Amino acid sequence: MKNYLFLVFTACSLTVGGICRLLGADRPAQAMWAAATVVALLPAVWWVVRALRTGRMSVDVIAVLALAGALAVREFLAGALIALMLATGRVLESYALRRARRDLAALYERAPRSARRYQDGAVCVVGVEDVRPGDRLLVPGGEMVPVDGVVDRGVALLDESALTGESVPVEHRATGSVLSGVVNAGAAFDMRATSTADKSAYAALVRLAEETEAATAPVVRLADRYAAWFLPLTLLLSGIAWSASGAAVRAVAVLVVATPCPLLLAAPAAIAAGLSRTARHGVLVKGGGALEALGTARTLVLDKTGTLTVGRPEVVDIVPAPGWDADKVLRLAAGVDQMSAHVLAAAIVRVARERSLSLPIPQQVREEPGSGTEGLVDGRHVRVGKSAGPRSSEWERAQRARAALDGAMTVWVAADGRSVGVILLRDAVRTDAARTLRRLRLAGIDRVVMLTGDRAEVAESVAAVLGIDRVLAEQTPQGKVAQVRDETRRSTTVMVGDGVNDAPALSAADVGVAMGARGAAASAQAADVVLTADRLDRLADAMDVARRTRRIAVQSAAAGMTLSLLAMAVAAFGWLPPAPGAVLQEAIDVAVILNALRALGPSRGTRLRVDDPTRALLRRFGEEHAGLRSSLERIREVGDRLSRETQGEVLAELRSVHAFLTEELLPHEHAEESRLYPAMARMLGDPEATVTMSRAHAEIDRLVKRLGRHLRLAGDQGPHPDQLDDLRACLYGLHAVLTLHFAQEEEAYFSLDSSPSRDPDLAAS
């Protein structure tokens, strides 16, 4: 508000003084201009003093000298013009360069406030500060663990994502350690406190965030960096002009045209334009300092869960036991799990509904936290969860080995005491993650690091897909901060995260980026940049804008200073008095500001432009992909059955798979070939861009035709024994090619669809 009042006063003083001069009242005019000069001089002196107290030399020193010189030689009009420039720059800077305070309110609000303690055989609610080591506490379902402790009775199924980033609840049995700040995702359990609230894990997290925030230095303004050489040069030139001519007015004239308005106005104007541009991309940047730093970043540190992955487990495969069908297994599991609130149960029910399975209403449902859910479905006793008993068949051992290799979670499905299938789940990689990382590397990122609290094997499998340079797994919040600080010592570092446990690391980075659309409020408040849409590619958009904005700001400031240097040379020879020099300086300011405002315009950056017709095609074929993907596993399942079932039993399955391929999948692929691929080639400007995808279509066609020939040879009796090896190779080949081809199309093409909103650059062009 003070800056706006400053601007209004200087503008009014200059205007009123000009009117008085036109009316012939020279004395009132001089008085108004002098008042504006004095009013501007006082805060300018304070700004210089404040900068010197922090060890910085501010460009405001030149403004102070120019204002004081204008008063000394009674060039009040020049002083008023300088005051207007200064006030305008401060208003722009207060809007564009304010540094948001890293508010940790969400961490404080989320901290446990009370605990349920056993006293005299009853449960009493007490303040968390009253809990002492050894106290026995009750933790109901859905509530937070108040202090560190160990499980005393029952099974603790805990959502630890706030501290570790792990998206799947973790089970802790009796004597197992539990940390404060995690949420009970299962049934109530008892625990024994092992620490007080102020020494618990959550309190340490809050303290760590506070210490990190306090230790983070503010970003130095672009203008102040240029002042390091511009200020001495100005003082030297004005001193030479004064000593050579003996006229102080020449020194004042040099100072007037040297007033660093190209720095005070152009850089903030460009930064303000850049902030507006990032907001249109769904990215909130908290101040110009953060935008400047984002534009110079060379290292990117990313959390895994919720940042590179979708942040929730998804079904990746349903493996039926011999003699069972995948859809039947899924229907039984989802029938029971629809009565459970467990995150894995929700994923199973979700995929069943996506496959349009009719789910039966279960009876006598009982859920045992940490073990699973059971009930009666269609007259069968169905259990979904952990495998029952230590004994397992060869098939079960094979599925466990596969899950370990894939880094997947297993949910076993049993009917009437016998295993009928297993459902594999994994936190899937975001479809836009690989493209975004490629764009960020094009934008200037040299080093990409994954920093996660998850297991090493899971993190490394994600890193291998995305081409990440370094993986740091199983990290505590303290470890994350140490690693981020180590990276910041090497180069300007951006840290991206979404959990409460990421807040300290976000504060430690040069630029903290929070996935604010679904991430924790604490991480959003501790960050410098918040992605309001749940899309990682918005970070690449923001970096494009930041680099272009900084480039324009530097160009504007450099051009303005070059013109100012020329004007200073003219003024030093006495050919440019202070008042005309101030007017010339205003003209220079207008020119550099207009150039700076180019940052408002759209730019191509590293984003690939997608026109509306192509976007509609991407959306159509992307939706078809989602519908077809669930049927791909049937191809491999039939291949598995070739050795276990008779030719007659498997013939119907082979015909069903062939019908799916010829009636549903091939028409989809042919439509892509004739409509989507030509559109993509035009958009990419390269007719060869889709050649590898077309080659995959040709291979799919070849294998489908081969399968058809096998069916014709088999006749009505089923495939002959000498056909089985080639049939199995054909089915496995189809499954492998289709799985890879679908993944490639989703990453390369369908991730370009930035729905629900259009590309703002495209919309503005």
Quick summary of this structure?
The protein has 765 residues and is of the alpha+beta class. The chain is built from 26 helices and 22 strands.
Describe the structure.
The protein is α+β, with helices and mostly antiparallel strands and 765 residues long. The chain has 5 domains: 2-99 and 218-273 and 547-600, no CATH class; 106-207, Calcium-transporting ATPase, cytoplasmic transduction domain A (Distorted Sandwich), CATH 2.70.150.10; 283-308 and 430-532, HAD superfamily/HAD-like (Rossmann fold), CATH 3.40.50.1000; 310-429, Calcium-transporting ATPase, cytoplasmic domain N (3-Layer(aba) Sandwich), CATH 3.40.1110; 612-764. It has 26 helices and 22 strands. It has a 7-stranded mixed beta sheet with strand order 10-22-21-20-11-18-19, with helices on both faces. The protein has a 6-stranded antiparallel beta sheet with strand order 2-1-3-9-4-7, with no helix packed on it. Strand 16 (409-415) and strand 17 form a beta hairpin. Helix 1 runs antiparallel to helix 4, helix 4 packs parallel to helix 10 (261-280) and helix 24 packs antiparallel against helix 25. The model is unreliable at 96-105, 212-220 and 755-765 (pLDDT under 50).
